[in-house]
Design brief:
Shape: globular
Helix content: 25-40%
Distance between the termini: 43 Å
Largest sheet: 8 strands, mixed
Mean pLDDT: 93
CATH topology of the largest domain: FAD/NAD(P)-binding domain
Strand content: 15-25%
Number of strands: 16
Order of helices and strands: EHEEHEEHEEEEEHEEEEHEHEHHHHHHH
CATH superfamily of the largest domain: FAD/NAD(P)-binding domain
Number of helices: 13
Bound molecules: flavin-adenine dinucleotide
CATH class of the largest domain: Alpha Beta
Strand order of the largest sheet: 3-5-4-12-13-14-11-15
Structural class: alpha/beta
Length: 378
C-alpha cells in the first residue's frame, strides 16, 4: 500500500512510523522541520504511552513535572501532586524526535509543502509533478489543506484561540482559570525555558485582548516571566462539537484526517497531542486490518470520540465562575477532589464517567457546588 502523509507533527510522524513498521510504502511531506510549533508542549502520560520506544542514543527530549498548581483566578490556589508525571517538551525537539523514529522505520520524508490534493489520492507539491497514492492522510494541523479541500474547514465555533510566548528562566507548572474568558492561562516548564500561554474560545475575545490579559496577569503574579523580548504567538486549536457527526466526517474511500486536521483536540483542556497520537494509532490499526480508511471514523468515535463530544457538551458549564472557584477551594481541603482534578488534567478521568466519580468521591462537593448543574442537562 502506498500512503502519503501530509504533515509531520506528532500525528503524521507517528502514523508514518506505524505504517512503515507494517511494511507500507509511506511518504511524509513536510517542509517545516526543524521548527517550533506554538504549543504548551505538555505531554500527558497517556500520550507518552503511545510513542515509539526511545533508542538508548536518542532519549525523548522532555522534562518531567510531578506537581501542578491550580488557581481559581479568584484567590484560591492548590498544589496538586500528579498521579503520573506530565512531560513538557519543546515541539521542535519532540516532533523532530518522532519523525526520526519514522524515518528509521523506513518512512520517506520529503521536505516539500503540499499545494494540492484530491479525493483520488493525487498530491502535488510546489517542486514536483503530481504523484498518486492509494491513501492520502491529512496530518497538516489546524489550517489543514487536506481538510479544507476534501471536507471543508473546521467551523469557527469549534476553534479555541491560544496565545503566548516562550520565556527564559524556570517556573513551577501552573494553571489558572480565566472564567470571564471561558479559558485558562498556563505556565509549562520546558527543559530550558517556560511556555507561558492563555486559551479561550475564538469567539470569546479578540486575540490582542487575550495577550494583553496574559501580560497583565503575568506582570502581577510572575514578573520574571514577562520577557518583553520574546515574540508573542497566536494559533488555533480545533475541536469536535457535541454531535458525533463532527467525528464521523474525517475519512473517505481514499483519504483520512488525524490530529488537528481532524479537529480532535479536547474542547475543555485544549489537549491535542494525545488525540493526534491516538487518532494516528487508530487509523494505522484500521489500515493494517482492512487496507482502507473507511472504518476509521466509527472506530475513532468509539475509541475517544464520544469523550470529546461529551467535553464539548460540558464546556460552557465547566468554565462557569462558581464551579472553578469552588472546585479549587474544595481541592484545597479534600484529597479526593485533588485526585479528580489531577486525573481530569491528565486525561485519566473521562468526562462520561465524571459524574459517577464525583458521586462516589465527593458527594458533598457535587451537592454544594455548581458541579450539580454541570450535569443537569448534559
Ligand atoms: C498555543 C497552543 C498550546 C497548546 N498546548 C498544548 C499542550 O500543552 N498539550 C497538548 O497536548 N496540546 C497542546 N496544544 C494542541 C497541540 O499543539 C496540537 O493539538 C497538536 O500539535 C496537533 O498535532 P498534529 O500532528 O495534528 O498537527 P501539528 O502539530 O500542527 O503538525 C502539522 C504539521 O503539518 C505541516 N503542514 C501544514 N500544512 C502542510 C502542507 N500543506 N504540506 C506539508 N506539511 C504541512 C506543519 O508544518 C506541521 O509540521 C496546543 C495548541 C496551541 C495552539
Amino acid at each position: 500500500m502506498k500512503v502519503a502523509v501530509v504533515g509531520a507533527g506528532p500525528g503524521g510522524a507517528l502514523l508514518a512510523w506505524h505504517l512503515a513498521h507494517d511494511g507500507a510504502a509511506v511518504t511524509v511531506f513536510d517542509a517545516s522541520h526543524p521548527r517550533e510549533k506554538p504549543c504548551g508542549g505538555g505531554v500527558t502520560a497517556r500520550a507518552l504511552d503511545l510513542l515509539p520506544p526511545a533508542p538508548p542514543d536518542d532519549p525523548l527530549p522532555v522534562r518531567l513535572v510531578e506537581t501542578c498548581r491550580f488557581e481559581s483566578g479568584m484567590g484560591h490556589g492548590v498544589d496538586v501532586p500528579l498521579t503520573r508525571p506530565v512531560a513538557v517538551a519543546a515541539r521542535r525537539e519532540l516532533d523532530g524526535w518522532i519523525l526520526r523514529r519514522a524515518v528509521a522505520a523506513g518512512a520517506q520524508h520529503v521536505c516539500e509543502r503540499v499545494t494540492e490534493v484530491d479525493a483520488a489520492g493525487r498530491i502535488r507539491t510546489g517542486a514536483a509533478v503530481a504523484r498518486v497514492f492509494d491513501v492520502v492522510v491529512g496530518a497538516d494541523g489546524a489550517g489543514s489543506l487536506v481538510r479544507r479541500t476534501l471536507t471543508g474547514p473546521t467551523p469557527k465555533e469549534r476553534l479555541m484561540m491560544a496565545a503566548g510566548w516562550f520565556a527564559r528562566g524556570t517556573a513551577p507548572m501552573a494553571v489558572r482559570f480565566v472564567t470571564d474568558l471561558s479559558g485558562y492561562l498556563w505556565l509549562f516548564p520546558r527543559p530550558d525555558h517556560v511556555g507561558v500561554g492563555i486559551c479561550a474560545p475564538l469567539a470569546a475575545v479578540p486575540t490582542r485582548r487575550m495577550l494583553d490579559r496574559l501580560e497583565r496577569e503575568v506582570a502581577v503574579s510572575f514578573p520574571a516571566l514577562l520577557d518583553d523580548e520574546a515574540p508573542r504567538y497566536a494559533h488555533t486549536i480545533p475541536s469536535p462539537s457535541a454531535d458525533p457527526r463532527s467525528i464521523l466526517e474525517v475519512a473517505g474511500a481514499r483519504w483520512a484526517l488525524v490530529g488537528d486536521a481532524a479537529a480532535f483536540a479536547d474542547p475543555i483542556t485544549g489537549e491535542g497531542i494525545f488525540f493526534a497520537l491516538r487518532s494516528a494509532t487508530v487509523l494505522a490499526q484500521t489500515l493494517r486490518e482492512s487496507g482502507s480508511p473507511a472504518g476509521y471514523p466509527a472506530r475513532a468515535l468509539e475509541d475517544f470520540g464520544r469523550e470529546l463530544n461529551k467535553a464539548a457538551a460540558l464546556r460552557d458549564r465547566f468554565y462557569s465562575p462558581g464551579l472553578a472557584r469552588r472546585m479549587i477551594a474544595y481541592a484545597g481541603r479534600s484529597r479526593a477532589i485533588r485526585g479528580v482534578l489531577a486525573d481530569l488534567v491528565l486525561g485519566e478521568q473521562g468526562y462520561l464517567s465524571l459524574k459517577r466519580r464525583l458521586l462516589r468521591t465527593g458527594p458533598r462537593f457535587l451537592l454544594e457546588t455548581a458541579a450539580s448543574s454541570l450535569f443537569s442537562a448534559a
